[in-house]
Amino acid sequence: MPLDLADASFRFQALPRLAVAVLLWSGDESFPDSTHLFDAAAGHYLPTEELSGIGDWLAHRLARG
Predict the structure, then answer these.
(1) Between vectors from CA 10 to CA 39 and to CA 55, what angle results, nearest 5°?
(2) pTM for this entry
């Protein structure tokens, strides 16, 4: 689902109670091209290491097309 954030942004439902927002910016040397964000409540569902893994997995899937 598209969001109204950054240059482009989308919401993905990673798990039934866990959504991930992917934000894309036209990057430069000061800021990365993109990032992924979780709601503050995400830590109630999974540990930080698992959330990081979900973000990495989604980034790789998006990069492959």
Answers:
(1) 55
(2) 0.69
CA distances from 39 to 26, 28, 63, 65 (A): 23, 26, 23, 25
Collapsing DSSP to helix, strand or coil, 21 comes out as: strand
Residue indicated by tokens 């992917």: 22
**How far from 20 is each of 7, 24, 30, 34, 61, CA to CA, in Å?**
17, 13, 24, 13, 13
Q: What is the mean pLDDT of residues 32-61?
A: 84
Are 19 and 11 within 8 A, CB to CB? Answer: yes
Per-residue burial over 14-24, b = 16 or more CB atoms within 10 Å of its CB, e = otherwise: beeebebbbbb
CB 37 within 8 Å of CB 20:
yes
